[in-house]
Outer-membrane lipoprotein carrier protein (Suttonella indologenes), 232 residues
Amino acid sequence: MKKLLLVGILVATSTITHAQLFNINPQESATSQTVNAAASADVSAFVQYFADTQDLQGNFTQTVHGQRGLEQSQGKMWISKPGKFYWDYQGANAQKIISNGSKVWQYDIDLEQISVRGRDELVGDVAMDILSGTREIQELFAINAVAQPQLPVALQALAKDGQSYRLTPLSEQDGYDTVWIVMKNNQLAALAVDTGRGQQTVIEFSQLQRNVGIAAGQFEFTPPAGVDVIGE
């Protein structure tokens, strides 16, 4: 299974607001302004959440919706700014994908093989762009607050009672076209990536801990003895 990693402000308008653009009733126009103001504040809080996030750790469930149907995997993750991450895919097709900010190890446990690359060789790395990057999220994406029905179908159930956002890259990306994020109770709940090629990857987070501190050694990796290492 392919392991796809995850992360100016444009304020979205709801279906109601679009309708009100053509309504000259002064009272309804005021309502439209209220909706826009609320969406603007909503996006500002979203941006601040990621600006204030220095590290995250917790569990995840990743579901890939593609031509082969559904493929699901689970695991644990650790992320720390700037540029460090550890995604531990457990169970079938177990893998570990680790970066200390300059080097990336991808360890396929079943194949007993490790590929090593420089961090700057990765493209389409959503997790790095959004969660553990060195740039602010609004410098990378146009951000729109969206209603639940505007989300991809695969994400709508997860978005119930949450706040949802569409992130469009400000520069062309090789790995994805659009990112969708759901927040619940001021915490990251789910992230979906649309590759633009008929495939969506949805990552649901649970038991997250934020800004509790993660030791730097968590993001270092020593290949086990007897495992083939490529690229180092």
In short: Confidence is low (pLDDT under 50) at residues 1-38. Residues 26-52 form the longest helix (27 residues). The chain has one domain: 43-230.
